[in-house]
Amino acid sequence: MNLPPQVPPPLVTDRAFARLAEIAAMTGQAKPLRVAVEGGGCSGFQYQIKLDDAATGDLVLEGAGQRVLIDEVSLPLLAGAVIDFTEELIGARFVVQNPNATASCGCGVSFSM
Predict the structure, then answer these.
(1) What separation in angstroms does the CA of 71 have from each of 20, 39, 42, 64?
(2) 3-state secondary structure at position 76
(3) DSSP letters spanning 1-45
(4) CA 94 → CA 13, 43, 89, distances in Å?
(5) Close Cβ partners of 113 (under 8 Å, ≥ 6 residues apart)
(6) Which residues are CB-neighbours of 35 under 8 A, at least 6 positions away?
(7) How far apart are CA 93 and CA 38, in angstroms?
(8) Can you list the domains of the chain with their CATH numbers?
(9) How many other CB atoms are there within 10 angstroms of residue 108's CB atom?
(10) Spatial distance between the Cα atoms of 86 and 68, rounded to a whole number of angstroms
């Protein structure tokens, strides 16, 4: 998929690609990570992050032999975002640092624009 010039693509950190490689090694299959935005959550939008197959129209971000997928509808909402992996006392998870979000809930999964 080609991006319109005014839409900067999301960035995936090396740490996120490394975690995807670990998951692929543990499961024996290298499924891409899909990061999508859906309506809902306590702030209006919520991130959907899951292992999934590529679909027509997806933006495919590649690194370290791994892939991250962004669908056409979510792409404008994730323009310039950073997709990372973090390990904290409360657990480990993929996170999205989204410059387009004007507010987010405490869990970091829901946001508004």
Answers:
(1) 19, 14, 22, 21
(2) helix
(3) -PPPTTSPPPEE-HHHHHHHHHHHHHHS--PPEEEEEEE-STTSE
(4) 10, 19, 14
(5) 44, 45, 77, 100, 101, 102
(6) 10, 47, 48, 49, 68, 69, 70, 74, 78, 83, 94, 96
(7) 18
(8) 11-112 (2.60.300.12)
(9) 15
(10) 16
Count of H-run helices and E-run strands, the chain: 1, 9
How far apart (Å, rounded) are the C-alpha atoms in residues 40 and 74?
14
Q: Which of 33, 100, 97, 111 is nearest to 65 (CA)?
A: 33
Which two tokens mark 1?
């998929």
pLDDT tens per residue across span 24-47: 999 998 899 999 998 776 667 888
Cβ(78)–Cβ(37) under 8 Å?
yes
User: Is this model's pTM higher than 0.85 or not?
Assistant: no
Residue 110, pLDDT > 60, answer no
Instruction: Name the residue among 76, 83, 79 with its Cα closest to residue 12.
Output: 83
